Amino acid sequence: MEVIVECRNLKKRYFQGSVPVDALRGVDLQVEKGDFVSLSGPSGSGKSTLLNVLGGLDNPSEGSVKIAGQDLSQLSKGDLADLRLQRIGFVFQAYNLIPVLSAEENVEFILQLQGVGAAERRQRARMLLAQVGLTGMESRRPAQLSGGQQQRVAVARALAAKPSVVLADEPTANLDSATAESLLSLMAELNQESGITFIVATHDPRVIAHTRRRIVLTDGQIDQDVRVSEDEMAPAV
Amino acid sequence: MNRFLLLLPLAWRNVWRNRRRTLITLAVVAVGVWSILAFSSLLEAWARSSRDASLNLLTGDGQIHAQGYRDDPAIQHSFATPPADGALVKVLNGSHVSRWSGRVRTPGIVQSEFKTLPITLVGIDPERERGLSFIATSVTQGAYLSGTSGNGILLGQHLAHRLGTGIGKRVVLMGLGMDDALAQGGFRVVGLFQAPRDMEDSVVFIGRAAAQRLLKAPGRLSEIAFKAPTQSDLTPAIQALRKAAPSLDIQPWQILQPLTKAVSNLSDGFVMVWLWIMFVLMALGIVNTQLMSVFERVREFGLLQALGLRPGDVMREVLAESCLLVGLGVVLGVLAAVMTVGALHDGINLGFLAKGAEWLGAQHVLYPRIDGTEYLLLSVVIWGLSMLASLWPSWRAGRYSPQEAMSRT
Ligand SMILES: Nc1ncnc2c1ncn2[C@@H]1O[C@H](COP(=O)(O)OP(=O)(O)O)[C@@H](O)[C@H]1O
Ligand SMILES: [Mg+2]
Fold it and tell me: Which CATH number fits the domain that encloses residue A173?
């Protein structure tokens, strides 16, 4: 199996004033193409930090990260930005969308940056919005969409770029449980269809139930790493 | 550059995000640009008017004298009328010069039954002065001179009043002749002219041949005044004339009327000072609003970077916002200036402050013009300077690391 995300002995130390905080204390991880991974653990255990470092938004203090074989420490800021554009889709907890752009334009924006032509852009954006169940809402601005709908747009956008991996940091934290459930089963479904790797940070057990590989972080270290069989996974809704 | 174009639509929407703030900034830029352009048009009109006023009196665009005349305007410093087929007359009749005329001009004294006053006596060819100096169109009582050799004289209204004389009366002119002896002759007042007060008081006009006869200087000229077809560039005319008459002293108005030139420079200087004052105010407004809008959107800049925009792209996006905002403001300001200056095309009448206008050396009616090149240049300068000012907020926007930006709520 092709390894898409790989990190070795990853450490991240922050300073709160002059007090050092070790957010990651030596994380080794390999994620294979097409996998659907949850990253759970108590608040402050380093989930966000790990996703940020994996996505090239933040530098590790020590250790190395490879995305699709590319060592991030070798890249300049600009090259990191290009790597995010081509290889990584992000879904954050909230404020994922550019407020002045419509749902469709938010999805198209990435494609435009990638240099995809207008006709194809439009077609792909509409198709993805249809896949996440937002047909008829393409021209709505984020403020005119519910929290769940906004997160669906964010998922559609993350997939539009055809990335190697989608990194989602508590994507359901602001949603009621039914909406959270349906977003997660949507993501699981898209993972099945597209073969795009997902890493989802969450502490919601219902979310974890949808994932195939379940990693638990404690105090910046991997505490558990379990792979479950298909029949242990929650069924798609 | 490609990215910049791509970011323009996004920037345009961001500009209109805070409508109120955008409208205020637009108003500041538009009013600033409007005031700079309108001010430059007005000052230019004033400088032009004051130049025309003083040059139309007698100077013309330039003059030819004998060497030494400008230091001592005695009839001895005169020159022989240039031959009609000579090089100088050829240039004067050519395309560099539109009008010209020779004059006799020397200090003298005018005497009535009641009073004797110092004046400058000017012998002219009345027909050739038309369109060259003010005198042909400024006779308000009586008649203009009818030839060069009669014994008619034109006096300023105020001078006539001071002399206690009037139309039809006789006065005596005195001056130093070519032979260095006192020359005098009687003249009959045929007309009174109106001009700025000091001109009315200091100059009298007689026929040129009559003046040469009086001063025993047959065929001699004190000066030739000329006008060029275009007022802007005199250099080729001056060069051609100097080449044709190397022994004569040939000067443009800037040398002959340094004060007029100073007014012209002053008005350019005012425009520059005003431009900088307005620009500093505008820049403060622009930088202030842009910084505010940047600080409000730190999280969004983080998002843009997470999506794959380079830090430089984020900077370009904010710069594009300023570019559009200021550009729109400049366009509005230019439109407003074109409309106001266009509405003043028929002239601003300064009659109500006639004394003041005269004192400023301008005519009573100013005609502001829209100078396309000047407007374009000033607009581009303002726009460019504003872009420089917005480099600071843009740079701030691009400087946040994505992680730092995203962790703000
Ligand atoms: N920018 C930062 N500066 C200082 N400390 C930070 C910063 N980001 C995270 N931390 C600290 O690092 C630890 C891990 O945080 P985080 O990765 O956000 O955990 P999680 O996402 O699992 O809740 C926490 O103790 C947190 O306070
Ligand atoms: Mg977190």
Answer: 3.40.50.300
